[in-house]
């Protein structure tokens, strides 16, 4: 086994301890994890954790290849790479063959809390100094992308990217992004860079300045009925990034003819009046994570168009503080942990 150091969840919180990674299989690479983003699902998983089963969160990270297995062809030692929230899939089912490994019929292997397809062990995540991954699920980090800022692209980024691409958003499209957090600010940057007329919908006026700074052309306060009424049927695509349960009725009203409301932030049950979809032939959709082709495409798009997440980088020793702040939405717009302080931490 290979020994590294990681932030393990226990009943008192996260603490640094050593971690055994598998020896490299023929198609594995070992990655020195330099930066790992903090995702809402990390927070949720820690809340739900029993405190005892092994848990190392973290599923959007960048780093450097430090060793390759004998059959690895895509990477060499020293390459800058990025890894997201899935690390394997069956490779055979229709979804995998369509390049949508994120929807694999036998479920993709998650970067942490998943079940390794070879040895059945529980996967442990990127809040660690080293990760071992199949080369097919690592991505070359294009030149020009800052490794710290790029980390959140691998979960928040690809989740916002796939629905925009699937609906062929481009010049002339009218996109609204509901909620300006980790996911939402990237949806805005992507939509703007793709050429769409982009509007942010937020509960208060507070983030109006930020929205414009991120490139948004319009800003609507959702709690102002007059502003929402003015925006009636105004958008081809509404990307909904609100992470708490919420009523979709008012948002469906701003979706235009044959337009789509894509719910990305909240994955529980919602109630919809079908007539709210009927009027205007509107579609209700969702998306999450991404397949290998789209992930590589997104990274290249970001490098080509200068799209990078807005991040606050903290030493990984401040992970508990960062989680507290994330819980209070006190971050603009994504925390990234610098893992270098794990060297010699145990
Ligand atoms: Zn995530
Ligand atoms: Zn599959």
UniProtKB/TrEMBL annotation:
The keyword Transmembrane does not apply. Residues 9-337 form the Enoyl reductase (ER) domain. Keywords: Metal-binding, Oxidoreductase, Zinc. It catalyses: a primary alcohol + NADP(+) = an aldehyde + NADPH + H(+). Gene3D superfamilies: Medium-chain alcohol dehydrogenases, catalytic domain (3.90.180.10), NAD(P)-binding Rossmann-like Domain (3.40.50.720). CDD domains: CAD1. Its EC number is 1.1.1.2. Belongs to the zinc-containing alcohol dehydrogenase family. This is alcohol dehydrogenase (NADP(+)).
């Amino acid at each position: 086994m290979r020994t590294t150091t990681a932030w393990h969840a226990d009943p008192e919180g996260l603490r640094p301890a050593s971690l055994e990674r598998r020896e490299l299989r023929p198609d594995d690479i070992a990655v020195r994890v330099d930066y790992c983003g903090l995702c809402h699902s990390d927070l949720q998983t820690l809340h739900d954790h029993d405190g005892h089963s092994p848990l190392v969160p973290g599923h959007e990270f960048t780093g450097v290849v430090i060793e390759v297995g004998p059959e690895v062809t895509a990477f060499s030692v020293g390459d800058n790479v990025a890894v997201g929230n899935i690390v394997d899939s069956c490779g055979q089912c229709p979804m995998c063959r369509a390049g949508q490994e994120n929807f694999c019929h036998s479920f993709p292997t998650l970067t942490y809390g998943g079940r390794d397809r070879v040895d059945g062990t529980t996967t442990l995540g990127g809040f660690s100094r080293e990760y071992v991954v199949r080369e097919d699920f690592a991505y070359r980090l294009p030149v020009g992308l800052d490794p710290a800022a790029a980390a959140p692209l691998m979960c928040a980024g690809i989740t916002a990217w796939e629905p925009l691409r699937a609906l062929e958003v481009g010049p002339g499209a009218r996109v609204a992004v509901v909620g300006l957090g980790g996911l939402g600010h990237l949806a805005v940057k992507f939509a703007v860079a793709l050429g769409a007329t982009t509007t942010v919908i937020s509960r208060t006026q507070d983030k109006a300045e930020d929205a414009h700074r991120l490139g948004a052309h319009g800003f609507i306060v959702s709690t102002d009925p007059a502003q929402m009424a003015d925006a009636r049927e105004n958008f081809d695509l509404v990307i909904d990034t609100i992470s708490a349960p919420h009523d979709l009725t008012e948002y469906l009203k701003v979706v235009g003819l044959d337009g789509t409301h894509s719910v990305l932030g909240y994955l529980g049950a919602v109630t919809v009046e079908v007539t709210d979809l009927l009027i205007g032939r509107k579609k209700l959709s969702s998306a999450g994570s991404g397949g290998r082709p789209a992930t590589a495409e997104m990274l290249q798009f970001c490098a080509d168009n200068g799209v990078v997440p807005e991040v606050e980088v903290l030493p990984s020793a401040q992970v508990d503080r960062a989680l507290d702040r994330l819980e209070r939405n006190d971050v603009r717009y994504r925390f990234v942990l610098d893992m270098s302080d794990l060297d010699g931490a145990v």
